[in-house]
Amino acid sequence: MRFMTAVVTALVLGAGMAAADPVEGLWKTEVDDGNYAIIDVSACGARICGVISRTFNADGEFKSEVIGRQIVWDMMPEGGGAYGDGKIWRPSNDKVYRSKMKMSGNSLKVSGCIGPICLGQNWTRVQ
Known about the structure:
Elements: H1 2-18, E1 25-28, E2 36-44, E3 47-57, E4 60-62, E5 70-79, E6 82-90, E7 95-104, E8 107-114, E9 117-125
Antiparallel strand pairs: 1-2, 1-9, 2-3, 3-4, 3-5, 5-6, 6-7, 7-8, 8-9
């Protein structure tokens, strides 16, 4: 009976690990208004979210009041490294935009849109 319990536990844990989305991990943003950040991207239920975990400026790392704040949320995986139907917060102007992302290897193109106009950044995988 112990053997069966161990097998079932291993299968359940293995299935959970296999279900991790490839975009999950740490991503470095581009510089915006003199600052950049490390974003911790993870699953939020069936969707993808990102939280600011570290912040940097020209002098190096600093403790910003935005650390711990959600910057990306409600991203729905669409397959092929694409995510859509999400939101992104831009700290430099404190505005929220409709957002989409496209992952390619260790690069993540993140776009924020107002109407048909989208501006974006290319984030680089840290971990």
